[in-house]
Design a protein that fits this description.
The chain has about 575 residues and is an all-beta fold. It has 3 domains: about 100 residues, Immunoglobulin-like (Sandwich); about 350 residues, YVTN repeat-like/Quinoprotein amine dehydrogenase (Methylamine Dehydrogenase, Chain H, 7 Propeller); about 80 residues, Immunoglobulin-like (Sandwich). The protein contains 1 helix and 48 strands. The strands form 12 sheets. The chain has a 5-stranded mixed beta sheet, with helices on one face. The protein has a 5-stranded mixed beta sheet with strand order 41-48-47-44-45, with no helix packed on it. Strands 2-3-4-5 form a 4-stranded antiparallel beta sheet, with no helix packed on it. The termini are far apart.
Length: about 575
């Protein structure tokens, strides 16, 4: 009887903890604006002062400083040059700046922007071709290339993610696929939505729970706020028409209690409430200017739910209940600015014109300033342990960090988000500020509870499960829950990977060239050649049914040739011998 009571108590405790309100963007910067809500808020505190950097590195030259996305102890950023317009992605260690990988070669004309960073992948968009890629976080190798293209300006909006981590993004406008959800494992479309969106030039969306929010309509159609079912892609409901221009360049931001905030291009700042089956307008704020770039930039929400916005040449704090101005900054020189609220309620602004400014919450005093020449697209991103990375035009990347001791901020990673039942699955703590104790709750897992910092768990029944972590040190406690995190599948089920088929190549061994038969129904193939260590040594995007590869530049040895297309993946071991 005592054992039964104890089990029931643990079960009830777990259920209660699962309903604690937690933030999935506590320290990771998965998309532009932080996370799916795009509220520009993080629990970690950025640098208190700007003195000597934690580290400085010289990197590949970039014309403009670009957005930083982080997960745990890694970050990615794009290195883009103009004349000619091209670029790639770098992944670096957040703690010391060490280069971990550079994105594989796509083509001489590729313009590869990072658009998100999650447990599953670094997501990238080739602005030259509108192609979407998922890169392996550990190696940068291409995980998949989607058959569906995306109308995305990679430097700014980023992707958002469904509960299980599937990316949700803009489709290709000329295909009439305005919103799409892709399978995170394969890149295959799970659904598409053809409701016209207000293009201008790349409309931004946000997600909460099982809903996707975006502005729909256009020049000849009423502009409305629309909720889309994140699981099916079906339109759920829309607001009444909202005054403003026929396009929509400004992003959507979600509040903590069902609110949706956005500027209408050429119009007001609006606050709406999602009632579950309809929208109610809460208030509308009329800005000082309604034209030009005065309203560009994101919206941030502080820990009291109030808004920080750009209005003309100032940052203003707006009351979440009434839309009234609570405080405003001095006049600033800005263009395409962005802002973040950190764990100390510091308001960190990137002016878009080469300067970062950190304001106190009342906007009346400046804590620090940092000159950042040609940093345009970098939404300020305080990350794990309060480390904040700044990218600059040129070849410099710097990080700054506060040296204050703090209560922990909970976070963790998992070896894989899909696992066969009865197989061990390892979890890794990646909390900030050195917790002393850990309490894990594994829904459906064995064990159900663990106090190890890095436990291993197995699942006996197929299903999709949440994981919760509570961490503590002498200064406080923090909790994070990651919903839909682990998918346990029957041992006989194959993992969700692209179809792999044998490929016939000749001659094999090869000396100077090898040839293969072009797969049916394919018009374009991504060719990867990897060495025995799994490193990509050659990569080419093939078109026009080119079926011959020159290998004379490769040293003698064993290689893996892999072709990725829209209908499958083909691979074969090849030998180069001279």
């Amino acid at each position: 009887m005592a054992l039964c009571i104890m089990k029931r108590t643990i079960t009830l405790l777990f259920i209660a903890i699962l309903h604690v309100s937690t933030s999935l963007s506590a320290q990771n910067w998965s998309t532009f604006g932080g996370g799916n809500a795009r509220n520009g808020r993080t629990e970690v505190a950025g640098p208190a002062v700007i003195n000597a950097p934690k580290w400085t590195v010289s990197s590949a030259t970039t014309t403009l400083g670009n957005a930083v996305y982080t997960f745990g102890d890694r970050f990615v950023t794009s290195r883009i040059t103009f004349s000619p317009y091209k670029g790639n992605i770098e992944c670096r260690n957040l703690q010391n700046g060490q280069l971990l990988w550079t994105s594989p070669f796509i083509s001489n004309n590729s313009i590869l922007y990072a658009t998100g960073f999650t447990q599953d992948a670094v997501y990238a968009h080739d602005y030259a071709t509108d192609t979407v890629y998922a890169l392996h976080p550990a190696t940068g190798q291409i995980k998949w290339k989607s058959a569906i293209e995306s109308h995305t300006f990679g430097a700014y909006p980023g992707f958002v993610f469904a509960c299980n981590g599937d990316p949700i993004l803009n489709g290709q406008v000329y295909d009439g696929l305005f919103t799409i959800r892709l399978d995170k494992n394969t890149g295959e479309p799970l659904w598409t939505n053809s409701t016209v969106i207000a293009i201008g030039p790349s409309s931004v969306l946000a997600t909460r729970n099982d809903k996707v929010y975006r502005i729909t309509g256009g020049i000849t159609l009423p502009i409305v706020l629309t909720a889309i079912d994140a699981n099916t892609g079906q339109d759920l409901y829309s607001s009444s028409p909202i005054p403003g221009d026929g396009d929509q360049e400004n992003p959507i931001t979600l509040g903590d209690n069902g609110e949706i905030y956005f500027w209408r291009d050429g119009g007001n700042l609006y606050a709406y409430l999602d009632k579950g089956a309809s929208f109610d307008q809460i208030w509308a704020y009329t800005p000082a200017m309604t034209t030009g770039a005065a309203l560009s930039g994101n919206i941030s929400v502080d820990n009291q739910g109030h808004l920080y916005v750009f209005d003309a040449s100032r940052v203003k704090r707006i009351n979440r209940l009434s839309g009234a101005v609570m405080a405003e900054s001095i006049e600033l020189n800005m263009s395409q600015p962005s802002l973040t609220i950190d764990g100390d309620s510091t308001v960190i602004v990137n002016t878009g014109l080469g300067q970062f400014i950190a304001f106190r919450p009342d906007l009346q005093a400046i804590k620090w300033q940092l000159a950042a020449p040609n940093n345009v697209y970098c939404n300020p991103a305080p990350s794990k342990d309060g480390i904040m990375v700044f990218t600059f035009g040129g070849n410099q990347i710097r990080a700054y960090q506060s040296d204050q001791n703090r209560a922990p901020v909970a976070d963790f990673s998992v070896a894989s988000t899909q696992i066969a039942i009865n197989q061990p699955l390892s979890f890794q703590d990646q909390s900030s500020y050195q917790p002393d104790t850990w309490t894990w709750h594994f829904e459906g897992g064995t064990p159900a509870i663990s106090t190890l910092p890095n436990p291993a768990v197995s699942y006996q029944q197929p299903g999709v499960y949440d994981v919760l972590l509570v961490v503590e040190n002498a200064l406080g406690t923090d909790t994070i829950r990651k919903s839909c995190l682990v998918e346990a599948v029957p041992a006989t089920s194959s993992q969700k990977e692209p179809t792999v088929q044998d490929l016939s190549v000749y001659p094999n061994p090869a000396t100077d060239w090898l040839s293969f038969q072009w797969p049916a129904k394919e018009t374009e193939l991504l060719c990867l050649v990897t060495d025995v260590a799994g490193r990509i040594v050659y990569q080419e995007l093939l078109g026009n049914e080119k079926s011959m590869l020159h290998v004379q530049s490769l040293p003698s040895g064993w290689y893996q040739l892999q072709l990725q297309g829209n209908t499958g993946r083909w691979q074969v071991a090849v030998v180069v011998q001279r």
